[in-house]
Amino acid sequence: MRDKPLYKQIQDHIKEQISLGILRPGDRVPSEVELTRQFSVSLITAKNAVIALAEEGILSRFQGKGTFVAESTKTEPVIAQQHDKGCIGLIVPSMDTRVDQRLLKYTEKYLRQQGYILTVRITNESLAEETEAIRLFHGIGVKGLLILPTVNEKYNESILRLTLDKFPIVLIFRYLKNIHTSSVISEDLQGTFQAVDYLLNKGHRKIAFISPENTNSATEDRALGFEKAFIDRKVPIDKSLWCFIALDALDSNKSVEFIYEFFKEHPDITAVFTVNAILAGKVYTALKRLGRQIPQDVEMFTFDQPNLPDIPYVSQDEETICKTAVEQLVQQIEGNDQLSQAVIPVTLQYP
């Protein structure tokens, strides 16, 4: 994807959302300003991408109202075929990131190959909505559940109850340490360790760690990987350079201001690791405001592709994660009660 022109990346992203049924005829698509922020492109690039899709008949533009998916679009949504094996429920906190969207894409692909229909519920990072989704799906008779727990989740009694009842369930990308259930995650600890070790090997010692509050297994394991890199090299770690963002500030401009002030107070920072691509974008914006060049003044490394120049990243294998999760779930449905915890390798990608 990195080899495609930026306007083409935006077009492919919108087409994929339509084909997966995330965007439906009549739905409003992100504005050109929103697309510039999401893809870190110029306004003219975003505008050209949208105009081209409108010319193809995929989008409809209305002066003063916005841009919408055309009522009769040439990109048809994916419609699940009727199968004999029944439905599987997928519960996710959001559908905002590329990781979320690939999760949906590959889960649907491999469930369809196994003969199952996928039905989806988005919880908006709410534990209460996740619990309600579990109740709803269980009530309508789904054969099993795939769940990406919310960002602040360490325990859910509904998941524990399903596990005790031996109902088929697999957790994806995150696991709950106090509930023994099947899960498929990335090498969060090892991936972060390798990234930070790379920065240490280049001579950096003042390395910032930028993360949401440590509220789930992924952020906790990535923090452990950061520490391990320093410990293994016997380099003192300065935790005053750790910056945790409150969960209620993540989706607002407050987080950029907070990060801006953090770097302003620590001008000696020469490198930074962010635990996800969203935070990488916020750090990039804050450093640019401070007049600090990347990578000349501050070198960055992040988890997940940031779509920003000169930033290496830890790449998760979303397709293998989804394929493995589906295989685990199907085995449970077919009577194999043995729980399995799979850890899928990551790779480091350099610009």
Automatic annotation (TrEMBL):
Molecular function per GO: DNA-binding transcription factor activity; transcription cis-regulatory region binding
UniProt xrefs under SMART domains: HTH_GNTR
Domain of life: Bacteria
Span of domain HTH gntR-type: 4-72
Keyword Coiled coil: no
Keywords: DNA-binding, Transcription, Transcription regulation
Protein's UniProt keywords contain DNA-binding: yes
Protein name: GntR family transcriptional regulator
Bilayer-spanning residue ranges: none
Organism: Cohnella endophytica
